[in-house]
Amino acid sequence: MSNLIEIRDLSKVYTRGKQKVEVLHHIDLDVAQGDFLALMGPSGSGKTTLLNLIGGLDQPSGGSIAIGGERIDQLSAAKLSKWRAAKVGFVFQFYNLMPTLSAQRNVELPLLLTKLSAAERKKRAAIALALVGLSDRASHKPTELSGGQQQRVSIARAIVSDPTLLVCDEPTGDLDRQSAEDVLALLQALNRDHGKTIVMVTHDPKAAERARQTLHLDKGTLVEQVAHAVA
Fold it and tell me: Has residue 200 got a pLDDT over 80?
């Protein structure tokens, strides 16, 4: 299986006043097409920074990031924005849904950046909501949905453009255990049945066990990579 993500000698340095803080230190990492990777580590270990770099939300201070053979660290801000819109779906801990819009309209939001007609946007949003099991909640606003349902709407929004890669930042961090299990089962199905490559930051070992492998970071360095036997 070919690699979707190839990271070489990756470093990230933030400047805080006169002090420079190196958050990631010379990371080398390959993620195969169709893999499901969990990123774990203590607070400040660099896992969210690494996720943001993979998703094109930030740029490295050194090294390279190639995704699908494209060096995203060399893209201009405008080209990187277009790349994210076409290639990456984002799932965050706190859903980030528009409170005044229905589930259907929330899912349609990424498609507003395309040339699709209103009818085609509605059709694709309906398909995405069906995939996450929420066809019967399409007209409901976020306040009319449970936390688990809101997160499933955010996942539908993430996949509506059929991205190659899903990046998930603590997607179960604000959910009760049953809702968390439902969301993790959905992510597994998207990985297993629809071939989505997923990179997920989590603090929960049970969530990490749903991934195909877990990458442990500590103080900006890769310290361990563990493969899981996933059904």
Answer: yes
